[in-house]
Structure formats: structure tokens, C-alpha cells
């Protein structure tokens, strides 16, 4: 009854958020089709950038698990995995499938939500002026509401639903997802500092967004989400998870040590970045000096300064200096030394701009990190571009600001088709977009031995999905089984969403792909090759999914260790024989 009343009132309340979730537009936004992406547009906000923003959000609708809402925009999706959580007497249905398969994974989901909320805090006006704010709200709540269910008590967080090994043997639609789908938790005796802190950071960042706690300075107003009740709820989860992260009886440790089931696909490299980031986002949410102090202490204690690696779902360190700088330049009681954090952030960014490694530019200009970019190459590049574009707003000099913006722009252009293949790497955005994303949902096939040809044409267009991306030679062959290049994932879309919001605000010029006419991408695939022959280790086996990349990283590491071991043994023997010679 009360529910009906709320529904009834919300019909009249089209702009206010007093009654919780924003009402979705009566005439829903639906992606216009790939051919629309080959037309020039003009005006402000630029219609092509606006459509791209809408498409990128639409992708998340396609990834939904559970009972779909009556407002579901993706006609080919069905209710699915409704019994998730039954094994632990909870309702863990809902949320999002992480990638091209049917796994629900808390760690990358948290990172995605954190990233999107942070972006919508800094550049949220873009969602407002494109009429996408209600979809942003809907997308975030679908994830956050599930994440709250996955955190049923202070010291319990579900980190995985589904069995990655079983899932790797299934290729088919959403009606026959294999069971059982076990639910895996971390808890007081079996903690996971990274997973708990990562979820805490997501809740805190999103609480900031829903209560309009914007950073001062040159940032745009946050998306017009204003739901203080919801924000308080999120903040409570953030606080509880933070205290679970730092004070669990089992101590501080990476979550795969407690839940080995995540080790195959979702292993975390360390917890130090998540804990620091959670403390920092929470300090901003609460204006609590001691939390800010803890964040500074962790940054020192864990030796996070001087890090040169990527920013992604597992590795957040480069974002922390940026967030510190945003807080330092805001007029807040937390303080922080602006020039110190600028120096730290700019040290990291200047290396990227100067091509000093470990990231380097491919021949045609994609920022590439050996190892991290071997699968889903666009992800490190777009994440770097997102941080650069955000940080550029508060850079110490105009010269740096311009250099950062232009580098970020180059990566966005590359992703949107200014590359040697002439492929805009977003499904359904242009006639040259990939048409074979590695997605069991969208493929329409159910023969795991014949992913590429059955069916010939992918059954459904997975609009708005950012695919993995090209190999390090800029090659991309749009082959369904080639998961390193064609898989989709929640976290692949996140940086592109924020970058697109930035462009909506600033760009009257179309995204690059509007200049690409049908046929620009020669889709002839190399005969007899499952994937790029020049870079054979990106050849996937059919059943592998995104999980394989971590397994691969381990294989590479183990091989490296064996080589190192052999070498040290060799030199040890050499030096011993040297000693023998000397003594002899
Ligand atoms: C947003 O909605 C308004 C009012 O319906 C409409 O005039 C405007 O064209 C829309 N803007 C975009 C970018 O869709
Ligand atoms: C949803 O169900 C319909 C049949 O009702 C089916 O044709 C379609 O392929 C299903 N969608 C997916 C993603 O499996
Ligand atoms: C705590 O988590 C571990 C690892 O997931 C699990 O084996 C154990 O049963 C959990 N403890 C409780 C009390 O649920
Ligand atoms: C947010 O909504 C509350 C009512 O729930 C209102 O008092 C407040 O002024 C709004 N804030 C903004 C910034 O719109
Ligand atoms: C949950 O954790 C919070 C700290 O965030 C603490 O204040 C509260 O007492 C805890 N509740 C329970 C039931 O342990
Ligand atoms: C900030 O740190 C710099 C050194 O990095 C120092 O010179 C400066 O005095 C500090 N500023 C404040 C306000 O503490
Ligand atoms: C699946 O594909 C394989 C390889 O093409 C083929 O041999 C097999 O007959 C197919 N299975 C079905 C059920 O069509
Ligand atoms: C938009 O362009 C202006 C002028 O070049 C620049 O100062 C600002 O940083 C840009 N904003 C974004 C979000 O890129």
C-alpha cells in the first residue's frame, strides 16, 4: 500500500529525489543503433557524446542478475539466478554479472561502483544535461542494493557467488545457468582486508555522491542525486566494513587467503591500496580528521609513494594521490599539503607523458603495460586517461594541465576508432564497432566447442560494452573466443563512462567514430588463427574467461621464478667453483 503510494507520488515528482530513486523517463533511452554513430552531429551537449554516455550506462542494464524490473530496457534479458544465496539462507539474488559469464564478484564490482560514483561527483553535470541521471541512479542502486545484501552483518561480506570452474564449462543464455552457485564469504576469522576495504570505499564514494559532498575547485556539480537517507545507509555500511577491514580477528590479509575460490579469477595483489583509499573516502564523507590521519599513515607505512604501475580494479594506488590532492585543495577541515600531493601525483603522470615506463606507447599510440595490458589492453589506458583528465583540473602548471588533457584525449580517441584498425572499441556505437564480444549472454550460442561459429552472427547487440581491446601490436580481430581482446566487464566500462561525461561537458566536436564510415574496419579475420599469431599467448582456450588472465599471470610469474631460481643456482655454482678455484 505504502509502496503504491510512493509509486503514485513519484509520477508527479519528476525532478525531486525526496522519495528515493529518481523516476525513469517515460520514454526510455534506447541505443539508436550502430549506423547512427556514423553521422556527424552538432550542438551542446553534443548529441553523439550524449548518446555514447547513454549507451555506456545501458551496458550495465544488460549485465543484470536476479528479477528484472518492470522498467528493464533490454528486451532479450530474462530473470536469472533467483536462488543465489539460498545455500546460506540469504537472498543474494540481483546485482551484476561481472563479465562475459555468470559470476558475481564483489571485489571488481566494488571498484566499478567506486569509480563511477567518484566520476559522477566530479563531472556529474554531464548526466544531468544528457537526461541520464535517472539511469545513473538506477544503475548504481542495482549494484549498491546488492552489495548491502552481500554485507548482512558487520563482519560478513559475500565476495563471490557462483563457481568459476563450473562457469568456465558453460556457454549459453541466462535461462540455463548451471547450478549450484555457491556463496563465498569473508568473516572475522577468515577476513579479506582488500575486499572489505574495497566495498567500504565504494559505499563511501557513493554516499558522497548521494549527499552531494563535492570537491571544491574546478570540478562540475555532482549529478543531481539527492537522497540523504540512502546516503546515510551507504555510509553506515562503509564505516562497518572499514572497521571489519582493519580490526578482524584473523588480521589483515588478501581475501584469496580466506576464500581460495576467488584465486582463479579475482585474486587481489595486495590490500594496502584499498585500506588507504577506504580511509580517505571515509574521511571525506565524515570530515573526520583521525580517518584522514590514518589514510596518510597507511600511505607512508605501506610505502605507496613512488608506485608506477596501473590503476585498475585491483590496483588503486595511483588514484589515491589524486584523491588526496582533491581533498587538499578543497576548503575542508581535513587539510593535507597540496604541494606534497601534487608532487606525488605529477611524478606518476609525468612519467606516463614522457613515456618513461613501465607503460609505453604502442606503435599507434595506446598506453600499454606489459602484463597488465596483455588482456583487456584498453583498461589500463582508459583508467590512466580518466585519472589524468580528473587531475588536470588541479595541476600545478598550465603546461602540465595541457599535456595531461591532450594525452588523455589521445587515449580516448584511440579507443573510439583513431587506431590502425579503425575500430571504435564500443559495441553498437558505429558500423565498425566489434560485433563479436565475448559474452555468453549476448552470443545466443550454446555450443562451447564452437563459440565462434555457432551462431554465425551474435544474437544480440551488447550496446555500450567496451571490449578488452587490441594486442600490443594494435591488432584486433573481433573473434568471440578471443577473450583477452573481446570480453566485456563491469570495470572495463567504468573509466569510459567518466571520460565520456568529461567530454559531454567540454566537447562540441563529435567523438572520433563519427568520421568512420561502414567498411573502414576490414573485418577479414586471419584464416585458421583463433587469434593474433604475432602474439600467441593471447590465444585463449574456448572455455576460458576473464579468469584466465590471472591464471596466465601466475603461470608467467611461476615461470619467471623458475628461471630466476635456475639462474641463482647457476651463479651459486659458478661462485662456488670460483671459491674452489681460489682456495685450490
Ligand atoms: C533532455 O530532455 C529535454 C526535455 O525533455 C529535451 O528537451 C532535451 O532535448 C533532452 N536532451 C538530451 C541530450 O536528450
Ligand atoms: C531469454 O528468454 C528467451 C525466451 O523466452 C530466449 O529466446 C532468450 O535467448 C533468452 N535470453 C538469454 C540472454 O538467454
Ligand atoms: C568464515 O569464512 C570461511 C571462509 O569463507 C568459511 O569457511 C567459514 O565457514 C566462515 N565462518 C562462519 C562462521 O560462517
Ligand atoms: C536535498 O534534498 C533535501 C530534502 O531531502 C533538501 O532539504 C536539500 O536542500 C536538497 N539539497 C540539494 C543540494 O539539492
Ligand atoms: C558494527 O561496527 C560498528 C563500527 O563500525 C560498531 O560501532 C557496532 O557496534 C558494530 N555492531 C555490532 C553488532 O557488532
Ligand atoms: C607542504 O610541503 C612542502 C614540502 O613538500 C613544504 O615546503 C610546505 O611548507 C608545506 N606546506 C604546508 C602548508 O605545510
Ligand atoms: C559443437 O561444435 C562442435 C565443433 O564444431 C561439433 O563437433 C559438435 O557437433 C557441436 N555440437 C552440437 C550439439 O551441435
Ligand atoms: C574543459 O576545457 C577547459 C578549457 O580548455 C579546461 O580548462 C577544462 O579543464 C576542461 N574540462 C574537462 C573536464 O576536461
TrEMBL record:
Q: Which UniProt keywords apply?
A: Carbohydrate metabolism, Cellulose degradation, Glycosidase, Hydrolase, Membrane, Polysaccharide degradation, Signal, Transmembrane, Transmembrane helix
Q: Give, as one word, the top-level EC class.
A: hydrolase
This protein is called what? Endoglucanase
- Source organism lineage? Eukaryota, Fungi, Dikarya, Basidiomycota, Agaricomycotina
Q: Does the keyword Transmembrane apply?
A: yes
E.C. number: 3.2.1.4
Q: Where is the active site?
A: 478, 487
GO process annotations (BP)? cellulose catabolic process
Question: Has UniProt tagged this entry with the keyword RNA-binding?
Answer: no
User: Which reaction is recorded as catalysed by this protein?
Assistant: Endohydrolysis of (1->4)-beta-D-glucosidic linkages in cellulose, lichenin and cereal beta-D-glucans
Q: Where is the signal peptide?
A: 1-20
Which residue ranges run through the membrane?
Answer: 550-571
Which residue intervals define the domain Glycoside hydrolase family in the entry? 50-498
Organism domain of life: Eukaryota
Q: Which family does it belong to?
A: Belongs to the glycosyl hydrolase 9 (cellulase E) family.
**Record-linked PROSITE patterns:** GH9_3 (PS00698)
Question: Do you know which SUPFAM superfamilies this protein is assigned to?
Answer: Six-hairpin glycosidases
What would you give as a GO molecular function for this chain, any one? cellulase activity
